[in-house]
Specification:
Elements: E1 5-10, H1 14-21, E2 24-26, H2 48-56, E3 58-66, H3 69-73, H4 75-81, E4 88-92, E5 101-102, E6 114-117, E7 119-121, H5 134-143, E8 144-146, E9 154-160, E10 168-170, E11 175-180, H6 186-199, E12 202-208, E13 215-219, H7 232-246
Parallel strand pairs: 5-6, 7-8, 11-12
Antiparallel strand pairs: 1-3, 1-4, 2-10, 3-9, 4-11, 6-9, 12-13
């Protein structure tokens, strides 16, 4: 996994800025994710309460797994999850998985924090009946999505917690870079360049390729000391970077 990176596409808002600044990732209940089929299942009412209890103790964090082609070629992710290029993307290294075991059906240690790749399928989740292994059924529910989402190349970190407000984990040292969408506002760009400088991570501006549908990432190199205050001089500094990049 050392050569594989992980990506999270984000819109620009205070919660996502805070997550970047504090190097935190957030977890959500399955039925709060954007896909309306997430967390849906048919179950025998005799075991419904037991299964609901198991499901309520699991929160998930969704990441895209792969190489830089996700940044340069996966236009759906930029459009759908990064606010039509007005947002940004965070790149993580394999340390983002620290504290989570790779899930194994043989060991079936779903009682711990695990990560698992998503399996894409056309088949809907089978009904859950009395006598079924509810832990296995729980994993099936968490780890399967419709094949229409295959382009997301998703893995999930599954957090086992009894407290629904215990929904974030610090992942210091795992953030490699931040990529700014093509349509990001000057104010949000300024904020993200500041945070990237503060964290001492790489920062890139995305631009449309000259002769293809591929995006290009241009590094933004500004010292933290030059961004210690948000003021008109800082705005001009970033505008100067824009002019420099556009002239290349």
């Amino acid at each position: 996994m050392d050569n594989i990176n992980f990506y999270k596409f984000r819109s620009c808002n205070e919660l996502n800025f805070e997550g970047l600044e504090k190097e935190s990732i957030y977890f959500s209940p399955l039925n709060k994710l954007n896909d309306i089929f997430e967390g849906r299942y048919d179950i025998d009412e005799k075991i419904s309460d037991e299964f609901i209890g198991k499901l309520s103790r699991r929160l998930v964090c969704c990441l895209a797994k792969g190489d830089e082609s996700i940044i340069h070629n996966n236009h759906y992710m930029w459009t759908h999850y990064a606010d039509e290029h007005k947002g940004f993307c965070i790149e993580y290294n394999a340390h983002v998985l620290n504290g989570f075991k790779p899930y194994s059906l043989r060991d079936n240690y779903i009682q711990q924090n695990v990560w698992m790749p998503i399996k894409y399928t056309d088949s809907y989740t089978e009904p859950i009946n009395v006598g079924d292994d509810l832990d296995v059924k729980l994993v099936d529910l968490i780890s399967h999505k419709n094949i229409s989402f295959e382009h997301e190349k998703e893995i999930r970190l599954v957090l086992h917690t009894t407290n629904p407000y215990d929904n974030k984990r610090v992942v210091k040292g795992s953030i490699k870079a931040v990529y700014l969408g093509c349509r990001i506002s000057i104010e949000d760009k300024m904020r993200l360049i500041y945070l990237a400088s503060k964290l001492e991570i790489a920062c890139y501006q995305m631009y449309i390729g000259n002769s293809s549908y591929t995006l290009k990432a241009i590094p933004i190199n500004i010292k933290f000391s030059d961004l210690c205050m948000v003021n008109p001089q800082t705005c001009q500094l970033i505008k100067n970077v824009e002019e420099c990049v556009n002239s290349q």
